[in-house]
Amino acid sequence: MVLARRLNEQAGALVRQGRLAVYPSSRGQEACQVAAVSVLEARDWLFPTYRDAAAIAARGVDPVEVLTMLRGDRHCGYDPVAHRVAPQATPLATQLPHAVGVGHAARLKGEDTVVMALCGDGATSEGDFHEACNFAAVFAAPVVFLVQNNKYAISVPLARQSVAPSLAAKAVGYGMPGVRVDGNDLAALTVVLGEAVRRAREGGGPTLVEADTYRVEAHTNADDASRYRDDDEVAEWVRRDPLLRLRAHLLAEGALTDALEAECAAAAEELAARVRDGMNRERAADPDEMFAHVYATPTAQLVEQRAGLRAELELEGS
């Protein structure tokens, strides 16, 4: 969680320096990010959103590769198959049917793979969310839907999205278990998500987990959160910071020493330095890449366009 917090901080700084085009911070949601990954096995799949960079890094993906898409590159930055991590999805909920498809395919093949599908409260207002939940329930797909309810879909508060008693309550309509959990409590999250993963692996089908948390920072660097929420609301959630809560608990249990805390801080600074170094390196652009992965056999139009671009570049080079 310390590494996740430092990654959020460093990525925010890189945006201000112009090294990243955009960064959706998950500050305040680090417990969700870490718990979601900690309960998975290597053979399982993670389907993240644009706000889940910390979860992807916790899965073992190089943070520099995680941030590659957010600097404006044409691809997601890492090999999804090698890491069993789908590309980050920017459109709301579009990754959820894909996640269910992977889980359903694994079940048909007799594999015990589990898929952890992450989304936010805004995604639950989308049709793809309904279709994914309904299909997963009907076909008992081994999927855990983790809704990180951070209270806002950009500027739209939860009260303007749903009047259900909770987002977890929506699970009743699909015929699957729904659990609401404190999204800032790492231990509670680990227990609830661990049970959902166990149930899915044993053939019990999907579970909808709603993590009650908060997006402390703005939606992205392009957002002015002060237009739709006040400082007192943010301050109340800052007092519930998941890192501070875990630290207080570990200190009370005698499990956190000064040496261990210093070790965690040093590891976080090492991560931040690697991210800075990676993001400050200019990547050589190859214009031919625009044409290389459109069709297995390029169309006549693509061949013509590529030849035209090459001619223009040669002219500029001369």
Write up this protein:
There is one protein chain. With 318 residues, the chain is of the alpha/beta class. The protein has 2 domains: 2-279, Rossmann fold (3-Layer(aba) Sandwich); 287-318. The chain has 14 helices and 7 strands. It has a 5-stranded parallel sheet, sandwiched between helices. Strands 4-5 form a two-stranded antiparallel ribbon. Helix 1 (2-16) runs parallel beside helix 12 (258-279). The protein is globular, with a radius of gyration of 21 Å. It starts with a helix and ends with a helix. The model has no long low-confidence stretch (mean pLDDT 96). Belongs to the BCKDHA family. Its cofactor is thiamine diphosphate. It is an enzyme of class 1 (oxidoreductase). Pfam families: E1_dh.
N-to-C CA distance: 52 Å
Oligomer: single chain
Number of separate helices: 14
Task: Quickly give the structural class.
Answer: alpha/beta
Low-pLDDT runs of 5+ residues are: none
**Count of all domains:** 2
EC number: 1.2.4.4
Family: Belongs to the BCKDHA family.
Cofactor: thiamine diphosphate
Enzyme class: oxidoreductase
Brief sketch in words of this structure:
The protein has 318 residues and is of the alpha/beta class. It is built from 14 helices and seven strands. Helix 7 links the parallel strand 2 and strand 3.
Q: Helices, strands, pairings?
A:
Blueprint: H1 2-16, H2 30-38, E1 45-47, H3 53-58, H4 63-68, H5 80-83, H6 95-108, E2 115-120, H7 127-138, E3 143-149, E4 152-153, E5 156-157, H8 171-174, E6 178-182, H9 186-201, E7 207-212, H10 231-238, H11 242-252, H12 258-279, H13 289-292, H14 300-317
Parallel strand pairs: 1-2, 2-3, 3-7, 6-7
Antiparallel strand pairs: 4-5
Helix pairs in contact: 1-12, 2-9, 6-7
Keywords: Oxidoreductase, Pyruvate, Thiamine pyrophosphate
Catalytic activity: N(6)-[(R)-lipoyl]-L-lysyl-[protein] + 3-methyl-2-oxobutanoate + H(+) = N(6)-[(R)-S(8)-2-methylpropanoyldihydrolipoyl]-L-lysyl-[protein] + CO2
Organism: Pseudonocardia humida
